[in-house]
Give the backbone structure.
Amino acid sequence: MKEKYYISTAIAYTSGKPHIGNTYEIVLADAIARFKRLQGYDVYLQTGTDEHGEKIELKAKDAGVSPKEFVDEKAADIQRIWDVMNTSYDRFVRTTDEQHEKVVQHIFKYMYDKGDIYKDEYKGHYCTPCESFWTDSQLVDGKCPDCGRDVEEKCEEAYFFRLSKYQKQLEEYIESHPDFIQPVARKNEMVNNFIKPGLQDLCVSRTSFSWGIPVDFDPKHVVYVWLDALTNYITNIGYDVDNVTDEFKYKWPADLHLIGKDIIRFHTIYWPCFLMSLDIPLPKQVFGHPWVIMSDGKMSKSKGNVIYADDLVEEFGVDAVRYYFLHEIPFASDGVFTRDLLIERINGDLANILGNLVQRTISMGNKYFEGKVANKKVSDELDVEFINKINALYDNVSAKMDKLQISDAISEIFELLRASNKYIDETTPWTLAKDEALTDRLETVLYNLLEAIRVSAVLLNPFLTKTSESIFEQINTECKDLKYNEENEYSLNKPTALFMRIDVK
C-alpha cells in the first residue's frame, strides 16, 4: 500500500482576483505534490477559497450583489486561474459548502460545551482587511502589524476561545517537534514575538455583521472567519465531532500546510490550539513560504504594480511562468519579479539550455540514424562520468525536495542539462559522423544524450508539466525510469521548439 501524503495551501480569500504572489503558493504546492506522486506516494492536495467575513459583506454591498453571488463569482475566477496554472489539486473546497458550515457549527458547540469557548464582551482594535483583532501592545504605530492599515475600535458581545489555556502545551509541542514550523526564522518569530509574551484569549464570534456561519445556539453571532477557515483542512476530509470517517483517519494529520509567511501566526498558534481542543493530532509541518514582491516593494493596487498570473501565461506560456515562480523565489527570503528577468530566464535557461539541447539531439538522431537510436555501448571515460551524473540526478533532486528547496532541486536538473550540452561539445557528434568506422560510437553518444534528456524530462514534470510531456512526445519512449537505462530504444519524432526566444527591444 502506498504511503499517504496530504498537502494543503492556505485557502484564497474571495475579496478579489489573486495576484502572482497568491498564485505562487498553489504552483509551489502543486510542484511538491507532483514530485511526491513521482516518488510513489498517495498524494492528496487540497486548496480552495475562504468566503466569509465582514470584508466580503462590505465588498458585496459596494458591488450591489448578495455576498453569496459575490463569492460565487470570485471563487470561480480563483479556480479558473489555478486551472490555468495547470495545478493538480484533488479537492477545491469552499467555506460556503453546506457540509463545511455544518461541521464548523458542531465544532463551535463542542468547544463551548467543553468550556474552551465562553461569552464575554470584546473591546479592542480590529483590522477589517485582515479580519484580525489586536491588543494595544501588538499595534505598530497604532496600526495593524500585518498590513499597516488603520484599525477600528470595536466593542461588542462576543464568544472567546481560551487560547491561553493551551499556551504551555503549544510551547512544549513546538520545542519537541523542531520541524513543525519551518523555516526556522518563522518559528523563532512565532515563539519570541507571539507565544512567549503570553497568548490572549481569542475572539471567535461577531455580531456587527451577518455574513458568516451562524452560531446555531446563539444565531445573532457568526463564527469568526479564522475559526471557520482553518477548519477546512479537516471538515473536507470527513471529520465531524461525533463522526470521524475512514477518510479522515487515513489522511490526517496533514503532512504539510503550505502558507504565506504573513498568515503563519494563524496556522501555527490558533490552528494548533483549536486542534488541541478537539483532541486531534497537529499537522506534521507548517511551512511559511516567502513573498513574490515587485522591485518597488509589496504588490498593491494603490501602487498600481499588481500583476496577475493568467495575464503572464497568455503572454509567455504556463511553463515559463511556473519556472520563474519555482526557480527564482528563494527558499526562505522574498523573490523579486521583473519582466526582464522572466524574459532572461526564458531565453537563457528554457530556450537555450533546455530547448536547444533537445532540438539538436533529436535532429542529429533523425539525421544520422533516421530516428532509430539504440545503445551500441561503445564507450569511453567521458561516458562513464556522464552516466554517473545521470544516475545521481534523482537522488540529488530528492534531497532538495525533501527540504522543500524547490529552486535548488530545479537547478540540479539544469546542471545535468548543462553537462549534456558540454558532453556534445566534447564528443563532437558531427565529427564522428564523418567516419563510418565510428558509427556505433556516434550512436552511443546520441543514446546517452537521449537518456539524459529522458531522465531530466521525468524529473522536470512536477515543475514544467507541459514541457515534460512535449519532450516525451518528441523522444517517443514509454520508459520513465529514474536512472540510466542501458536497454532502451528510441524511435524519434520530428523536433519542435519547446520555447521560443524573445527579442529584447
